[in-house]
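Please fill in the sequence for the structure shown.

STRUCTURE ENCODING:
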């Protein structure tokens, strides 16, 4: 891990009791993985909520009733374009090695999308996940069967994985499509000041 401190008059305080400010940059290549996060959680789908200053990723497990949120990750809006780009690159790498991920089966008569209130009324959101975990970086890896997302808090002096989520490979294209659409909607609401990433 390396760190670079910004230079300038703010680097050292003139008096012992003066406020101290310093810009620090470091990499998350050696991010620590806390024991409670290391095993990760498996998810069968993602719901994306837009806030004024953040995106919330709710990873759901829909294999038992009631369906439940297994991880909630809060991202600053500035990270979303990088996440979209990283997902596109990982999907391209996956396809180069293994071919396209298998498509998820589509029901013959899919029901119309339900309002968000109705979806969440049928979900179990454990109290300890209500506030979620913050991440300002992400690392993605894949095997032939699944993708692993390590969401990282990139703070000095040591980066740490705040959440690890596994998705089956067929789930990832849908996640990418939904995230891209959500980012485009966010940009439109903000006046279109920044174009969405293109692949």
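FILLED IN BY: designer on duty
SEQUENCE:
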């Amino acid at each position: 891990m390396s760190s670079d401190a910004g230079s300038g008059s703010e680097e050292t305080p003139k008096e012992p009791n003066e406020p101290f400010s310093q810009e620090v940059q470091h990499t998350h290549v050696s991010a620590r993985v806390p024991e409670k996060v290391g095993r990760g959680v498996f998810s069968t789908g993602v719901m994306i909520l837009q806030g004024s200053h953040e995106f919330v990723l709710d990873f759901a497990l829909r294999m038992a009733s009631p369906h439940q949120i297994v991880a909630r990750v809060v991202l600053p809006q500035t990270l979303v374009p990088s996440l979209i780009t990283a997902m596109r690159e990982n999907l391209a790498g996956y396809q180069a090695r293994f071919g396209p991920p298998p498509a998820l089966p589509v029901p013959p008569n899919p029901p119309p999308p339900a309002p968000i209130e109705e979806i969440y009324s049928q979900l179990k959101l454990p109290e300890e996940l209500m506030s979620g975990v913050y991440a300002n970086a992400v690392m993605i890896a894949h095997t032939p069967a699944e993708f692993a997302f390590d969401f990282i808090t990139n703070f000095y002096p040591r980066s740490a994985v705040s959440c690890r989520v596994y998705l089956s490979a067929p789930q990832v294209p849908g996640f990418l499509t939904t995230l891209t659409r959500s980012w485009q909607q966010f940009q439109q609401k903000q006046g279109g000041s920044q174009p969405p990433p293109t692949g």
